């Protein structure tokens, strides 16, 4: 949901809980669309900081019709991947 829509909805007095649920559905819809284009292979895992947002995870599960697994350390996935790439590159240089 674009920022101007959120501001408009707030100005119209839309309940904050409904607004947040709409944002969750919007994020999940976009992620599900991308996942479906790539092809989904179970099990489905979600990484990154958004994986700690249970509302987005539940909305994504509903969009996909599948269980989405997460880990409390999901926000570290990108950093771990970058560290592994740097480590491998350093090993290749030696």
Summarize the structure.
By secondary structure, the chain is mainly α.
Structural class: mainly alpha
Query: How would you sum up the global shape?
Result: elongated
- First and last CA, distance: 48 Å
Return the average pLDDT rounded to an integer. 92
- What is the level 1 CATH name? Alpha Beta
Q: Enumerate the spans where pLDDT stays under 50 for 5 or more consecutive residues.
A: none
Q: What is the architecture at the second tier of CATH? A: 2-Layer Sandwich
Order of helices and strands: HHEHEH
**Percent of residues in helical segments?**
55-70%
Radius of gyration over C-alpha positions, nearest whole angstrom = 17 Å
DSSP strand (E) fraction? under 5%
CATH superfamily: ATPase, nucleotide binding domain
Largest sheet: 2 strands, parallel
Total domain units: 1
Major sheet: arrangement of strands: 1-2
The third-level CATH topology is: Nucleotidyltransferase, domain 5
The number of helical runs is 4
Kindly describe this structure:
- With about 90 residues, the protein is mainly alpha-helical.
- The chain has a single domain (about 5-94), classed as Nucleotidyltransferase, domain 5 (2-Layer Sandwich).
- The chain is built from 4 helices and 2 strands.
- It has helices spanning about 5-10, 15-40, 55-65, 75-94, and strands spanning about 45, 70.
- The protein has a two-stranded parallel sheet.
- Strand 1, helix 3 and strand 2 form a beta-alpha-beta unit.
- Helix 2 crosses helix 3.
- The longest helix is centred in the N-terminal third of the chain and has 23 residues, at about 15-40.
- It is elongated, with a radius of gyration of 17 Å.
């Amino acid at each position: 949901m674009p920022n101007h829509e959120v501001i408009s909805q707030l100005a119209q007095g839309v309940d904050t809980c409904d607004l947040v649920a709409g944002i969750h559905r919007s994020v999940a819809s976009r992620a599900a669309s991308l996942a479906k284009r790539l092809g989904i292979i179970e099990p489905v895992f979600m990484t990154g900081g958004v994986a700690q947002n249970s509302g987005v995870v539940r909305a994504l599960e509903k969009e996909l019709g599948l269980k989405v697994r997460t880990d409390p350390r999901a926000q570290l996935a990108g950093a771990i991947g970058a560290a592994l790439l740097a480590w491998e590159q350093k090993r290749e240089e030696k």
